[in-house]
Design a protein that fits this description.
Length: about 450
């Protein structure tokens, strides 16, 4: 047991892994992965995504967790302490602060999308979707998006839920939420895959996700795949750094990283195997885009046996995935605020309120501002506020912060200190990871940006 007033920690290794996997598994796995993979032609994209996970995002994830463990504080403070420990000149806390801004940016669109999932879950609970004419699903989505007040309300509900969990101490709030929601999510997901296998076209789904098809290897495709890898692990905003600061000394980082990445990958692929068999069996295009989970799937729910129940299970799953991630997005700012005199409940409400206000930009982009491009004059024509926020955070803040973490761990801190903080029994594994963090990941991220600028 920890003494009262001591730095908080998770109760066990498993509790940490569940919470961290909860952070990683989120809307990105279900809402994001399926449509990005669908839009980019399946197999080839998945391969690049796997390589990006293994050689860029995964090692950076471990670097971020390690900074949290070594600094044992909120991201700006942890980074500041590490900077002071070696007397570096550049301001490391700035990276932490940019991350905190990033958490609010992610939350701002997360809340709106999760809000729609909650709303759809409620409709399914009342027996909705089953037997509806196709037009009713299209109208439901259109009506929701034409009603900014409804979107804002659901976003507020989602943020209130997130704040409620985070306002408790770590063990009672974040840890318990993960322990309840993650196993439920896994059970529902496996159930859905089995259901899809029986009702849908599993063969085509497997071929689509894992088979090789004609694919254009553009720099855009690489950016999407790497951006998705960073987003899905949640590297780069300080979420996992904050959780890392709460982990016990007995956690073995390489093993923990392996399990978290494996679970994250499992959920993304299983979500694909739950969704695409139904998509193919019903003859809709896999490239339906971001609307896949709110338009394509619900249309399918209207036609299949037990549609309302399947729809409810699916949207509940989506909501749980979102909540276990949003709490990890609220935790860093709350950790920073509570380093002063502020209490957790107040900090959680204030930051959730801030994220809610920021979410109004996405609400606007989905409704009246659908064709408003705020930064068109700066050359970002065609991008709504939502697009700017989403792409800004996943394609810039996440990979660039990830790069900074790699450089800190790989170059700035002393190798022996890093080695001691891991701890990693296998010397060869350490050497391999250290080389990836020092050289391969930074080079890959740099190449990506050069490619994006030139492409
Ligand atoms: N990993 C989460 C997802 O896949 C999103 C997330 C991003 C969580 C950044 C934490 C930090 O949806």
């Amino acid at each position: 047991m920890q003494a009262k007033g001591a730095y908080p920690s998770f109760t066990s290794r498993l509790a940490f892994i569940i919470a961290a996997a909860g952070s990683a598994v989120g809307l990105g796995n279900v809402w994001g992965f399926t449509y990005v993979a669908g839009a980019n032609g399946g197999g080839g994209f998945v391969l690049i995504y796997l390589l990006a996970l293994a050689f860029v995002a995964g090692p950076a994830f471990m670097a971020e967790m390690l900074i949290g463990r070594m600094g044992k504080a909120s991201p700006p403070t942890a980074l500041g302490e590490l900077q002071a420990s070696i007397g570096a000149k550049l301001s490391w806390p700035t990276i932490g602060w940019i991350g905190l801004v990033g958490t609010i940016m992610v939350l701002s669109f997360y809340a709106v999308i999760a809000g729609q999932a909650m709303y759809y879950g409620l409709i399914a609970l009342q027996g909705g979707f089953a037997g509806w004419p196709e037009g009713a699903v299209v109208a439901l989505d259109a009506d929701f998006k034409a009603d900014p007040l409804a979107m804002a309300l659901w976003s507020a509900v989602f943020m209130a839920f997130t704040a409620a969990i985070v306002s408790f101490d770590i063990r009672t709030g974040i840890e318990r939420a993960g322990k309840v929601m993650m196993p439920t999510l896994f059970v529902m997901l496996i159930g859905l895959v089995i259901y899809s296998g029986q009702t849908g076209d599993m063969g085509r789904a497997v071929d689509f996700l894992f088979g090789f098809h004609e694919i254009n290897f553009t720099s855009r495709l690489f950016l999407e795949a790497v951006g998705q890898a960073f987003f899905t692990l949640g590297v780069g905003v300080g979420g996992i750094m904050t959780y890392g600061s709460y982990m016990g000394d007995d956690v073995k980082l390489p093993r923990a990283t392996f399990w978290i990445v494996a679970m994250d990958l499992f959920v993304a692929l299983a979500a694909g195997l739950a969704i695409f068999p139904l998509v193919f069996a019903s003859g809709v295009e896999p490239t339906a885009g971001p609307g896949l989970v709110f338009l394509t799937l619900p249309i399918i729910f209207t036609e299949i046996p037990g549609g309302a129940f399947v729809a409810f299970a699916f949207f509940l799953l989506l909501t749980f995935a979102a909540v276990t991630s949003s709490i990890s997005l609220l935790a860093p700012t709350v950790a920073r605020m509570t380093e002063g005199r502020t209490g957790r409940p107040f900090a959680a409400c204030l930051m959730a309120g801030t994220a809610f206000i920021a979410s109004l930009a996405t609400v606007y982009s989905f409704s009246d501002g659908r064709e408003v491009y705020p930064l068109a004059a700066l050359g970002f024509d065609g991008l709504t506020a939502f697009d700017l926020i989403r792409e800004g955070v996943s394609n810039f803040i996440l990979p660039l912060s990830g790069l900074a973490y790699c450089l800190i761990i790989g170059w700035a801190l002393r190798r022996d200190d890093v080695r001691a903080a891991l701890p990693m029994a296998d010397g060869r594994l350490f050497t391999l990871w250290y080389m990836v963090v020092r050289i391969i990941a930074p080079l890959a991220i740099t190449a990506l940006f050069i490619g994006a600028v030139l492409g």
